[in-house]
UniProtKB/TrEMBL annotation:
CDD domains: PcpA_C_like. The keyword Oxidoreductase applies. Keywords: Dioxygenase, Oxidoreductase. This is Ring-cleaving dioxygenase. SUPFAM superfamilies: Glyoxalase/Bleomycin resistance protein/Dihydroxybiphenyl dioxygenase (SSF54593). Residues 7-131, 152-269 form the VOC domain. GO terms for molecular function: dioxygenase activity.
Length: 316
């Protein structure tokens, strides 16, 4: 029987200013910085993870903030919009909060849902949608009460250079179900209750350009290590070139690029972010894998200092 993913595990993007990145995602959006580590391939750069109180799969947005990085261009072969889900009745709170922090907002409608759309400080495209399904966040910070807090991902809008290839990958490689077409979009649904709704414009899009403000990859959930190995086999039998299984400390990962140009990852739910920090202390200390621990002093000296802080409302 073919495997079906529960939905998005995490989304990873590029940024250029680490403190501004923390200020936006923790200070403005109220997410928890659940892990502060480094890019394992470039330890002079942070890898920052934001999510709910535990950094649960389906809530995690991560960034590589390269100081001084060029600005990217959103386009084909990328996640076009990263969709966060909020509790019913909270969009008014979020519209007011974003405007108070100087963030321009607009609204869009797809499949009878209203989306509040905006961009982060680097131009990355985000949107909020109200849905009942999925647990509420238990995290409250910086003026965002838990009852209004972002619950995790609602899903994503995928910009493809070959929409037929991308929709085929969603259905046949990942096991999402197509639930409809409307106004030039196709909608797909995964089996879980968050990070589970994917919309794809049905027109082929021009290639984007990677850089600050763009998504590097989108990762899908595997429930455990055994299933993860099965996922690698399933993806390979569909004709995709898939990497070996890689240990990312907080999950195992495999990667492949689907035919529309988007880099997909499949990541395990375990072991999670509490493997090397107590749950109440997540994100407070720079965590390094064992092979970088002897270089800690040098690595820390090369990283810009960052801290989680409340962000003041911008004056009118």
């Amino acid at each position: 029987m073919a495997l079906r993913t529960a939905g998005i595990h995490h989304i990873t993007a590029f940024a250029s200013d680490p403190q501004a990145n923390v200020d936006f995602y923790a200070g403005v959006l109220g997410l928890r910085l659940v892990k502060k580590t480094v890019n394992f391939d470039a330890p002079e750069v942070y890898h920052l993870y934001f999510g709910n109180e535990n950094g649960s799969p389906g809530t995690i947005i991560t960034f590589f903030p390269f100081p001084g990085a060029r600005r990217g261009r959103v386009g084909g072969g990328q996640v076009g919009y990263t969709t966060f889900v909020v509790p019913p009745g909270s969009l008014g709170f979020w519209e007011s909060r974003l405007k108070e922090h100087g963030v321009s907002v607009s609204s869009a409608t797809r499949f009878a849902e209203t989306f509040l759309q905006f961009a982060d400080n680097e131009g990355m495209r985000l949107e909020l949608v109200e849905r009942e399904e999925g647990p509420n966040s238990g995290w409250s910070f910086g003026g965002v009460p838990a009852e209004m807090a972002i619950k995790g991902f609602g899903g994503a809008v995928l910009y493809s250079t070959n929409a037929a290839q991308t929709t085929g990958a969603l259905e046949h490689a990942l096991g999402l179900s197509k639930v409809g077409e409307e106004n030039g979009y196709a909608r797909f649904r995964a089996t879980g209750d968050r990070g589970n709704v994917i919309d794809v414009p049905l027109r082929d899009m021009e290639w984007g350009r990677g850089g600050a403000g763009t998504v590097h990859h989108i990762a899908w959930r595997a429930k455990d290590f055994d299933e993860h190995a099965e996922w690698r086999t399933q993806v390979g039998t569909r004709g995709y070139e898939v990497t070996p299984i890689l240990d990312r400390q907080y999950f195992n990962a495999v990667y492949f690029r689907e035919g529309g140009g988007i880099l997909f990852e499949i990541a395990t739910d375990p072991p999670g972010f509490a493997r090397d920090e107590r749950p109440e202390e997540l994100g407070e200390r720079l965590m390094l894998p064992d092979w970088y621990e002897p270089q800690r002093e040098t690595i820390e000296a090369n990283l810009l200092p960052i801290r989680v802080r409340s962000v003041e409302v911008k004056a009118e």
